[in-house]
Amino acid sequence: MGRSRQFNQSKLLLLQGCEQRIGYEFQEKQLLDEAITHASSSSSRLHSYERLEFLGDSILGFLVCEFLFQSYPDWLEGELTKVKSVVVSRQSCAEWGQELGLKEFLVIGKGLGHRDTMPDSLLANAFEALIGAIYLDGGMAAASRFLLPFVESQVRATLEDSVESNFKSNLQQYAQKRVGLPPVYRLIDDRGPDHEKWFLVSAAIGKRTFPPAWGRNKKEAEQRAAANALAEIEGEALPYPQDPDTLSPQLDEPLD
Fold first, then answer.
1. Cβ distance 118 to 108 under 8 Å?
2. Can you spell out the DSSP letters for 235-256?
3. Cβ count near 136 (within 10 Å)
């Protein structure tokens, strides 16, 4: 493919660190280098992540469609389309980029500011570029192995939002009526390997903090934390107790 290139030691360490984080080792390192390089720091936009992002966006759409089609044989086109639109959204890609900590590895120009203030749109772009790079390097099977854990988690979270009552919305209404302040959600802990990480989040209203809940992503954890808060307010049993036994058996790091 004509992509072979020699890298200096610092760039090699950056690429290797990124490979460890995403759980995939590239045969052609140049693909990964392009996937994490913003146009502002490249000598040519052709050597930035833009083309890979274009490809990755289409692969993401295809794999999500295939997953939904195979997993939900009773759904009609409208139901499939509704869930797909959430899963392939820029917000989802940005959240996945945040979960992987991609901003530690993105190569950006000075004009874009500090990494701590990096726009979410860059993380979304880089995540899609990674999909494209992995596809070119290892084929559709490799891209699917990388992507499906994120897709499955997002589909579950989307279905919980639509099927169950919106706990966060209900808690916000309660908080506004009682204290005139919105709930605050705090990340307490996260556990597990990068591709199967769990998050422990608690909800607080004013000075009152409610029992935390684990979720397969931050959005799910916040929704469950809100459910726990509402249950405690009503004097009911917690729907999501902070119990390691309720977590996925795929969580192979022990919980304290």
1. yes
2. T---SS-S-GGGS-TT--SPP-
3. 22
Containing 214, the helix (H) or strand (E) segment is strand 213-215
Angle at 126 between CA 122 and CA 129, to 5 degrees: 140
Q: Are 209 and 197 in contact (CB under 8 A)?
A: no
pTM: 0.64
> Is 9 in a helix, a strand, or coil?
helix
Q: Which of 57, 95, 99, 137 is catalytic?
A: 57
One CATH from 1.10.3720.10, 3.40.50.12780, 1.10.1520.10, 3.30.70.20 for 9-163: 1.10.1520.10
Task: Look at residue 2 and tell me whether its pLDDT is greater than 90.
Answer: no
Which is the catalytic residue, given 34, 128, 137, 220?
A: 128
Is there a catalytic annotation at residue 57?
yes
pLDDT in tens, 146-183: 999 999 999 988 887 665 557 888 899 999 988 888 99
What is the mean pLDDT of the segment spanning 52-79? 94
- Is 164 annotated as catalytic? no
Q: What is the pLDDT of residues 117-148, one digit of tens each?
A: 678 889 999 999 999 999 999 999 999 999 99
Q: Can you say whether the dihedral through the CA atoms of 124, 13, 52, 130 is positive or negative?
A: negative
